[in-house]
Every structure is written in C-alpha cells, then in structure tokens.
Amino acid sequence: MNLIQTDVITPEDFLYFRTLMGWTPIAMEQIENGLKNSAKMICLKDGDTPIAMARLLWDGGYQAQLCDVMVLPAYQRQGLGRLMVTSLKDWLRSQLKPGWSIKLNLSAAPGKEPFYEKLGFRRRPCEGAGSGMDQWMAGE
Ligand SMILES: CC(C)(COP(=O)(O)OP(=O)(O)OC[C@H]1O[C@@H](n2cnc3c(N)ncnc32)[C@H](O)[C@@H]1OP(=O)(O)O)[C@@H](O)C(=O)NCCC(=O)NCCS
C-alpha cells in the first residue's frame, strides 16, 4: 500500500464512500455544505485512490462530533481507522487552551463500539451518562 494522507475529500468521493457502506443517501448540496463546514477532515489514499475518510465537527467551544468514519472493506483491520481517529483527536487536543475541555461525541454504527472503546470512548448509557439519542428530520 502506498499510503497518502490528505485533508481534502471531494463530494463525489464522500458519496462513493457512503454508498459503499450502505448508509442513508445524502443530497449533494448537503454533502458540499457538510464538507465545507467540517472543522477537520482526513482522507487516506492508496496512491491516487481514496480508501478511507473521517471528519470532525467542532463549534469552537466545548462540543465536537466525530462522524463519517469509513474504511473501504478491502482496507479494514489494518489500522487505518485508528490512524484517522487518532489524528483527528490529536488535532482537537491541539486546539485546547488552558482551562478548556471538549466533549467529543459520536454515534457508533452497530457492532463498532469495541473499535471506539479502544480509542478512549465510553459506551453509553453508563454511570453518570444516559443513552445517546438522535433524530432524523426530512424535508418535504
Ligand atoms: C469501523 C471501522 C472504521 C474500523 O476501521 P479499521 O481500519 O477496520 O479498524 P483498525 O484496523 O484501525 O482497528 C483498530 C482496533 O479496533 C479493532 N476493531 C476494528 N473494528 C472492529 C470491530 N468491528 N469490532 C471489534 N474490534 C474492532 C481492531 O481489531 C483493532 O484492535 P487492536 O488495536 O487491538 O489491534 C471500519 O471497519 C469501517 O469503516 N467500517 C464500516 C463503516 C462503519 O461502520 N464506520 C463506523 C461508523 S460509526
């Protein structure tokens, strides 16, 4: 593998990754807005071919969200997911000023909790924290 790390993801690549994962389709305008407004993105390539991506949302305050962590099936279990999440966490940590703390959230796909636990995330609900909750809204 000729591994190259970039911080650019094209909307087309993003759509390709999501389609391959079988995830909910997203409108192209929303993809473009989402990529433009991400705090940090990572795209791993094997030569010229995108093989993995992840991105981070952050409001500049104490709330951040890790999302769209995707590794193409042929490249899974080779440390690429860990590499991306660790890089994004390192970047977020580098933004901390004295006295600051940031809560990094994520919604795990079914069965992926052990992957995130190895990267320091706790499973909810747990002592002191209820279930993570979410809600989808659809336009007419
Ligand atoms: C989940 C995903 C991102 C993990 O990426 P990956 O590159 O395969 O994972 P890594 O090789 O970096 O694994 C890091 C560690 O987590 C473990 N791990 C990875 N996936 C795991 C799983 N599904 N269940 C249990 N452990 C897992 C690895 O064994 C490794 O453990 P080690 O440090 O003891 O060796 C990848 O499988 C993927 O893209 N899946 C499909 C999309 C998806 O569900 N994304 C998550 C959305 S929340």
Structure description:
This protein is α+β, with helices and mostly antiparallel strands. The protein has a single domain, classed as Aminopeptidase, CATH 3.40.630. The chain has four helices and five strands, in the order βααβββαβα. The protein has helices at residues 11-21, 28-36, 80-94, 113-117, and strands at residues 3-6, 40-46, 49-58, 63-71, 103-105. Strands 1-2-3-4-5 form a five-stranded mixed β-sheet. Strand 4 (63-71), helix 3 (80-94) and strand 5 (103-105) form a beta-alpha-beta unit. Bound molecules: coenzyme A (COA). Coenzyme A binds next to strand 4, helix 3 and helix 4.
Q: Biggest sheet, in brief?
A: 5 strands, mixed
Unreliable runs: none
User: Would you list the SSEs in sequence order as H and E?
Assistant: EHHEEEHEH
CATH architecture: 3-Layer(aba) Sandwich
User: How many strands in all?
Assistant: 5
- Termini gap: 45 Å
Radius of gyration, whole Å = 15 Å
CATH structural fold name: Aminopeptidase
* Structural domain tally: 1
User: What is the top-level CATH class?
Assistant: Alpha Beta
Please report the number of helical segments.
Answer: 4
Ligand catalogue: coenzyme A
Structural class computed from helices and strand pairing: alpha+beta
**Based on the structure, what is the oligomeric state of the protein chains?**
single chain
CATH homologous superfamily heading: Gcn5-related N-acetyltransferase (GNAT)
Side-by-side strand order of the widest sheet:
1-2-3-4-5
Mean pLDDT: 97
Helix residue percentage: 25-40%
Strand content: 15-25%
Please state the overall shape, judged from the principal axes of the Cα atoms. Answer: globular
